[in-house]
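Design request, tokens follow.
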């Protein structure tokens, strides 16, 4: 690493084979000043013109989709998902290009006060001038775009800092951006680590942060000191509740896709399984049998089901949690130890006999580990599922949809997949909030994903005579005899 540079590790080879420069606090001040100037014209363009710029950007990204996917594949060690992520990001841009106009015109309503009917009002939507977007390494492009595109659609300018762990997509993304100069003027991508992130918060009018609870707390404290809103999307420890009548094969497949599919490196990965005791043996048997068929991608040709861990140090967190569970009496039914072959792979791991005093049931794992607890009745299942500091999302499985819904209604989380898992990973147009330590601020999904970047200014028009000067004068009261 040289001064002002950060080295980047390739998760497949374990080699530090890439570098980014660190954007300094001075540079950030300069960039934000320029964004603040450019935002005025961007806002004035109106929703339709902004949408046109976004459509052109989506087309330019499509022209770079191969290069973006390749860059993501190197940084994440995932090939198929990297292409999916690039395409999904382009779809997201197109979605906001279509939806922003109608959402903005709905929000800019006018009418008559119900309380004082002579007062008519009009709303003006005032976007935050410059929004900082700070994103994590697990889904590097999509999580960088998800807040940025909505903020741009709302008329804000954006300063974006993707994670320093997975920054290679920035070069082809910037190429696409440069071909849409109107947009390139109002979104600036910077590189660096925590210091760059902190410097951004000091300069902007709102901050969107996706990352760990630990950093999220620091971001929200700094934002509070700067008196700006912070929209936080943080970690999770998502539970799945499997009722006695659930289709176990169905549940096992959905849970594996959620918990293992991205090597467990997703905020909405299922990390706690509560299974009815009458079916837990069959469920566990089915789960383990299916998992045994999965292979790691550390083979010579790189094919397989489970990609390496992206972030080197994550293996220590995973192993500490697994070791703690086993030391306290849990049983490892599958996996449990990392495989090192240049990069670090963690095999699908199933642990039974876990209890809530174990780290594996308390802290985010962010790895392909499935701990299972059996329950006797629904009250116990709901109590256990709610016994967490997190509240991101959950899943419930039952043949009886109403029974599943009844459980879902009582879970202290922001989104519940019924008879599937992690649906928030693919459904971006339905509003949901994060509960407890999993986040704060308006929904990033659905219409609120855009309206949270706007303040409403009300123009209040009196259509009758203003109230009399004496409205609040104290009159001498008549003394009753
Ligand atoms: P992280 O908190 O370590 O870092 C996230 C980003 O914040 C990075 O860009 C980093 O450089 C920056 N940063 C670090 N310290 C900062 C500071 N003090 N001020 C400003 N910026 C700072 O998170 P990570 O390890 O990159 O990501 C993994 C975490 O993200 C997991 O906890 C995961 O659950 C969470 N996550 C949440 C969601 C969600 O939607 N809720 C989605 C994906 C990931």
């Amino acid at each position: 690493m040289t001064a002002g540079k950060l080295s980047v590790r390739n998760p497949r080879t374990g080699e530090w084979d890439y570098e980014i420069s660190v954007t300094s606090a001075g540079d950030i001040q300069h960039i934000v000043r320029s964004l603040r100037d450019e935002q005025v014209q961007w806002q004035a363009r109106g929703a339709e013109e902004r949408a046109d710029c976004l459509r052109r950007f989506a087309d330019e990204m499509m022209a770079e989709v191969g290069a973006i996917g390749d860059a993501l594949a190197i940084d994440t060690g995932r090939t198929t998902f990297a292409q999916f992520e690039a395409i999904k990001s382009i779809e997201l841009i197109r979605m906001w290009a279509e939806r922003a106009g109608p959402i903005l015109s709905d929000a800019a309503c006018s009418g008559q006060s119900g309380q004082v009917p002579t007062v008519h009002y009009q709303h003006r939507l005032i976007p935050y001038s410059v929004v900082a977007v700070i994103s994590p390494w697990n889904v590097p492009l999509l999580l960088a775009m998800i807040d940025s595109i909505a903020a741009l659609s709302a008329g804000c300018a954006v300063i974006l800092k993707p994670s320093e762990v997975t920054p290679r997509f920035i070069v082809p993304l910037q190429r696409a951006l440069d071909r849409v100069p109107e947009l390139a003027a109002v979104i600036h991508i910077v590189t660096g680590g925590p210091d760059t992130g902190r410097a951004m918060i000091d300069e902007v009018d709102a901050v969107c942060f996706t990352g760990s609870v630990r950093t999220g707390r620091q971001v929200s404290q700094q934002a509070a000191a700067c008196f700006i809103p912070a929209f936080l999307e943080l970690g999770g420890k998502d539970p799945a509740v499997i009722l006695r009548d659930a289709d176990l094969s169905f549940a096992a497949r959905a849970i594996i896709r959620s918990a293992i599919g991205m090597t467990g490196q997703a905020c909405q990965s299922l990390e706690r399984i509560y299974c009815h005791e009458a079916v837990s043996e069959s469920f566990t048997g089915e789960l383990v049998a299916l998992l045994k068929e999965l292979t790691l991608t550390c083979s010579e040709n790189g094919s397989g089901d489970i990609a390496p861990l992206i972030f080197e140090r994550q293996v220590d967190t995973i192993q500490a949690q697994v070791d703690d569970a086993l030391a306290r009496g849990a049983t490892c039914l599958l996996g449990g130890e990392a495989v090192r072959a240049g990069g670090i792979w963690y095999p699908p791991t199933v642990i039974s006999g876990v209890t809530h005093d174990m780290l594996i049931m308390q802290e985010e794992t962010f790895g392909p580990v499935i701990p299972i607890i059996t329950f006797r009745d629904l009250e116990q299942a709901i109590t256990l599922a709610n016994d967490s500091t997190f509240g991101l999302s959950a899943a419930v499985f039952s043949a009886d949809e109403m029974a599943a819904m009844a459980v879902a209604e009582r879970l202290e989380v922001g989104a519940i997949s019924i008879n599937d898992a992690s649906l928030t990973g693919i459904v971006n147009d339905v509003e949901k909030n994060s509960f407890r330590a999993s986040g704060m601020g308006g929904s990033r999904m659905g219409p609120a994903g855009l309206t949270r970047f706007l303040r409403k200014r009300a123009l209040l028009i009196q259509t009758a005579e203003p109230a009399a000067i004496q409205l609040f004068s104290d009159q001498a009261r008549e003394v009753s005899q």
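Comment from the thread starter after seeing the answer: thanks! The two ends are 92 Å apart (CA to CA).
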